[in-house]
Structure formats: C-alpha cells, structure tokens
C-alpha cells in the first residue's frame, strides 16, 4: 500500500504523516532530545531526513502578529537575515523558514510566531528560585547557558548581566499530566534533590543536570522535553498491533514482541486485551526499506521463524519468535528492527508502495564489443581480449591501476582505457560509511577539481569517484561490502563504527576500519584494497603482496635497504623524489608552474627520463593529479 502524502506550502515535495520522530525539525530547527509525537516527513530520496513538527508544517503562508501590527508577515524561505526580532536568537541559517516583512525587514521565526510576545523587558523576580543561573558571560542565557543576541524581546533577570531566552522560561512551575494523575509535577533544580532521588526521566531516561519536573511524594521525574511533548496514553496503530496500546509510565524490563530484544529500563506500551508489549520506539516502524549493509530491499516481518542467520548489522542472534526485517531474495538474511532503522544504516525513506528503480547502466551498447561510456561520450570504446602488453604509464581512468593484461575497453582515437570490470561499475551504490546512496562521477565530466581524497581510505586519486552529499569514495573503497574476505586473515571482516583504531597492517589510526568479530584484528580501507600484484620499475618480475607470514629469516626492502616486519603487509614505494639544493646564481625552474624556485631546496622526480622539478606543495598536488 502506498504512503499517503499531502502537499503543503512549506516544502517542495509532498509530506507524509509521521507517527513519531526524534530528530531536528526543518521548520523551527528544534532538535528533539526525546520522542516527538505527530508531525510530517519527506519521503523523497533527494531529501535527507526532512522532518517537520505538525504545527510547523501546517504554518499559514501569511499571519498578522501583535509584535508587528503595521504589516502582515509572510512565510519566507531563506530570508535576508536569520535573526529573530522577538527572541533575538541568530539562527546561523539553520532555520530556513521565517515570517518576514519585506517593508520593515522584520523577522519572526516559526516558533516565536506561535507565541504571544512578552513585554519589551520584564523582571522575572521569582525565576532564580526555579532556574539556576550561569554567570560570568555577558548576554548569556541564565537558564541554558547559550548566548542571547540582543533582540527586541527577552527577559532581564534581576542579577547583573543576566538574561533568558523566551523558550527557556515558557515552562509552568507546576504541571498536571494524565499518566501521573495523583499529584502535580513541580519544576525543580536537579541539584536540590536528595542524593537517592530519581533524577532520570521515567520516559526517556535522560538525566537532567539543570532543571526537571519532579514529584517529591512519588519520586517521579520527567525531563522538560517529555513534558513539552508527552507520549499519548493510548495509541491505535493497526500496522503494529490490531488492538489499542496503553502506555506504561514506568521503565521496566521486558521482551518486545516486535523486535524481540530484551532490554532493561525501556518505556513500553501494553495491549490490555492480549498482553502484547512493545517498545515505544518500535511502534510505527517502516514496512519496506533499504539499508547500507544489503543490496536488496528488506521487509518488516512480524514472526520470522527458524532458519535465519545472525543480524546483518550487529551480528547478534535474532529471536525467531518475534519480528525483524528479512530479504525476499536472500532467504537467510535478517536484521533487528532497531539495527535496520538506526541513523547510520537507514536513510529514512519508506519504500512501501514505491516500485523499484530500473538499474541505470553506465554505457550503451553500440555494436559488437563496442560501447559508448558515460565518462567518454565523444568516442566509442572497443573491448579487446588480446594479451596485449601495455605501456607501464597506461592506466585505467576509473581505478588508476595499471592495465596489465586481461579484457580492456580502449578508445581507438585517444589514450582512454577502462578495465572491463571498471566499465561496468554501477551508477548508484550504497556503502557502509553512509546511510544515503552514492552516485558515480568521472573526472572532467561534471567536476571542477580533477583530484580528490577518498573519505574511506584518505588516499588521493584522479579516477572515478562515488559522491553522496559531501562524501567521496574511490572505486576501490566503494566496492567494499560485508562480509569482507581478505587473504591476510582467516575470518571475515565487518565494518566497525567505533573510535579510532590502529590498523594491524600499517599500524596507523583510522576511524573507518574493518574488524574481526572472532579475534582482535583490524584493517583500514587503505590496506584492505592493496593490489595483490604490481609491477615496479626496479624489478622485471611482478611483486606479490605478502602478509602475516612467520619467517625465520629477515626481510629487507630492496629500495631503502631497511628491515621489514613479515607480520605486516609490505609497503610499496609509488613515487620517488630527490631533494636537491637550489643554486644561488641560477635557481631552477619549476616544471609545474614554470617559475624560479624561491626556496633553498627543490624536489626532483626520479621517475622522469628528464629532470622534472617541483617547487611547492601546490605544484606537487598538481603533479600527482596529472599522473
């Protein structure tokens, strides 16, 4: 069944109703610390998790506001400035929508537009008894500690140089909530509570260090965010369960009937008719999605049954008696629902009712063994299977590796080559390091800079690259998937989303690492993609990659004549330079910028048949980009 969407003026794409979200609202830029109930989301693949509060999405195009009675205010995207004239907060362009008067250049953000304006100044005499003060910083909010830009309206606290945002003082001293009906909750300074008091919110578990709502009689605590957006007492969601679900306003230990995970201290909903229990976060899960750990779509299944492997993300067992995401094409693939919908794995797009996209091929077949590739549309490329010995300087335009032997696509009119495998690279693919799809780009096609640094391995390249938002991958790193099998280790490797780890090959620290679940072995993307064989100018035979060997003798590098560790992957020298002092009388010309060298030394490339001098880092980068 397709997702129902409606078109609202605030966004270019249709928006779908969202049962719950806990991310940043695109309308007011407020980032929910806990769950927010009711709202809209954009399900278009061009948008990256665009979410709106219900009231923000349904904002009228024009309002009359008492803070600016002279003219109406129109909803404007990207106004001339980003400072709200009511609260004084400068939003640094992170709030795209304002109510704006073009005549007076008057701005109101969507959050302040829904509130009545306070007096221009107000001495809030009893505020210090409720809110702790943060002193010592001029124009610093006495509640949250963030800066207060001098706007038209703010609260002046009775202490020197103390102010408060309007948002920070729009809290009642006492609130009555339906899931704690016996007593009101009072706004309380956290540090004033007894040491044995419950200082964690009963709903989200967040421990507030400043203020919270608290019932001294029941030892019942709630954070400001859960009071502002409380969960509904009763939920009706037929895709999750056929009966009404009732909130249990205490965190308990139980096994969720949807995800099968047993975790302590989780807020749950209970079916009073049949005893069905579910995590609050497992209500309203998307039915069909695609994740960056699998090539096919996966579907939420209420009862998976036996025969499945461990979770494809965390690799822990999946409870066969409960629900999870499964793949119709791969019969044993399964993912926990919480793992599949985590931010680093899923792009936030619900695919139910959306047909699968046809594969976009990178070339058109124009004849027998003849193609027209998107990266070289001016000429056709011919496939040659002959055992041709190519010049060592001839390289594949996609991967920048030497051609060697094998099937090669070549241009008969210019020196353009592609390995057959590289010519078939998909135009779109997903990758472990990001939740959104990557698109293939070629050098000079639609890119301003020829060279780039791969965000997985850090190496510079002038070849094809996969781009998603601000991330770039070379074709070698883009092909890494799970499980990754490497000849240097007996067990399969998996992507590790952890702090910086040391690679067991090069011993360098990296944040993008492939690790072993069985033993303490890690490999960074750079070492994982080293070629198995290569040619070197000082040896007529191909060099083979060696790793993890236990040798009784010693290994020596034939270039630098230093001893090597056979337990590590051997390094290879790609570029060789000589540092040459410049002459006082006639300084050498840089072969790159053609200027006289101004420094005492210059680099001389030894791989050139003639003297090739480089004077600066900028010229060195330009030199690499042309190789």
Automatic annotation (TrEMBL):
Pfam families: C1-like_CT (PF22926), C1_2 (PF03107). One of its GO terms (molecular function) is zinc ion binding. Signal peptide: none annotated. Coiled coil: none annotated. Residues 255-315, 395-458, 502-561 form the Zinc finger PHD-type domain. Keywords: Metal-binding, Repeat, Zinc, Zinc-finger. PANTHER family: CYSTEINE/HISTIDINE-RICH C1 DOMAIN FAMILY PROTEIN (PTHR32410), CYSTEINE_HISTIDINE-RICH C1 DOMAIN FAMILY PROTEIN (PTHR32410:SF179). This is Zinc finger PHD-type. It comes from Arabidopsis thaliana x Arabidopsis arenosa.
């Amino acid at each position: 069944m397709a997702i129902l969407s409606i078109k609202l003026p605030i966004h270019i794409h249709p928006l779908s109703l969202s049962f719950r979200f806990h991310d940043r609202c695109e309308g007011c830029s407020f980032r929910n610390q806990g769950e927010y109930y009711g709202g809209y989301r954009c399900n278009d693949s061009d948008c990256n998790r665009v979410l709106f509060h219900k009231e923000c999405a349904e904002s009228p195009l024009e309002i009359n506001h008492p803070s600016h009675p002279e003219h109406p205010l129109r909803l404007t995207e990207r106004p001339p400035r980003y400072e709200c004239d009511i609260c004084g907060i400068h939003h640094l362009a992170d709030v795209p929508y304002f109510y704006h008067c073009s005549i007076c250049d008057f701005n109101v953000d969507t959050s302040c537009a829904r509130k009545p304006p306070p007096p221009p100044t107000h001495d809030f005499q009893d505020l210090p008894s409720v809110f702790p003060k943060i002193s010592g910083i001029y124009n610093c909010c006495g509640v949250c500690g963030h800066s207060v830009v001098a706007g038209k309206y703010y609260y002046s606290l009775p202490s020197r140089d103390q102010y408060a945002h309007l948002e920070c003082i729009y809290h009642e001293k006492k609130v009555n909530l339906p899931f704690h009906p016996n007593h009101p909750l009072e706004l309380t300074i956290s540090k004033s509570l007894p040491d044995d008091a419950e200082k964690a919110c009963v709903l989200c578990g967040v421990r507030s260090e400043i203020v919270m709502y608290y019932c001294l009689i029941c030892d019942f605590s709630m954070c400001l965010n859960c009071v502002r957006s409380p969960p509904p007492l009763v939920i009706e969601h037929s895709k999750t369960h056929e009966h009404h679900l009732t909130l249990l306003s205490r965190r308990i230990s139980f096994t969720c009937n949807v995800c099968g995970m047993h975790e302590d201290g989780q807020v749950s909903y209970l079916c009073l008719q049949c005893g069905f229990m579910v995590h609050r976060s497992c209500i309203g899960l998307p039915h069909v999605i695609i994740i960056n750990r699998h090539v096919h779509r996966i579907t939420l299944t209420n009862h998976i049954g036996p025969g499945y492997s461990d979770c494809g993300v965390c690799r822990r067992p999946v409870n066969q008696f409960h629900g999870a995401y499964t793949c119709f094409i791969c019969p044993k693939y399964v993912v926990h629902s919480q793992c599949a919908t985590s931010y680093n794995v899923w792009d936030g797009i619900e695919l139910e009712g959306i047909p699968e996209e046809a594969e976009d091929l990178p070339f058109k077949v124009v004849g027998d063994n003849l193609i027209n590739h998107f990266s070289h549309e001016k000429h056709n490329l011919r496939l040659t299977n002959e055992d041709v010995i190519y010049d060592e300087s001839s390289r594949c335009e996609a991967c920048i590796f030497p051609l060697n032997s094998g099937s090669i696509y070549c241009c008969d009119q210019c020196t353009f080559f592609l390995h057959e495998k590289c010519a078939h690279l998909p135009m779109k693919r997903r990758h472990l390091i990001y939740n959104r799809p990557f698109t293939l780009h070629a050098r000079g096609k639609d890119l301003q800079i020829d060279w780039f640094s791969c965000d997985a391995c850090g190496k510079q390249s002038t070849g094809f690259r996969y781009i998603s938002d601000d991330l770039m991958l070379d074709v070698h790193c883009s092909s890494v998937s799970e499980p990754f099998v490497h000849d240097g280790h007996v067990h399969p490797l998996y992507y590790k989303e952890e702090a910086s780890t040391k690679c067991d090959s090069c011993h360098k620290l990296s944040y993008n690492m492939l690790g072993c679940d069985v033993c303490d072995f890690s490999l960074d993307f750079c070492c994982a993609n080293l070629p198995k064989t290569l040619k070197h100018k000082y040896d007529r035979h191909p060099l083979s990659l060696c790793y993890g060997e236990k040798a009784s003798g010693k290994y020596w590098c034939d270039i630098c004549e230093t001893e090597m560790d056979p337990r590590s992957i051997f390094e290879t020298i790609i570029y060789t330079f000589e540092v040459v002092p410049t002459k006082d009388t006639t300084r050498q010309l840089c072969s790159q910028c053609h200027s006289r060298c101004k420094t005492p030394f210059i680099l001389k490339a030894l791989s050139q048949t003639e003297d090739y001098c480089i004077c600066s880092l900028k010229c060195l980068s330009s030199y690499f980009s042309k190789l």
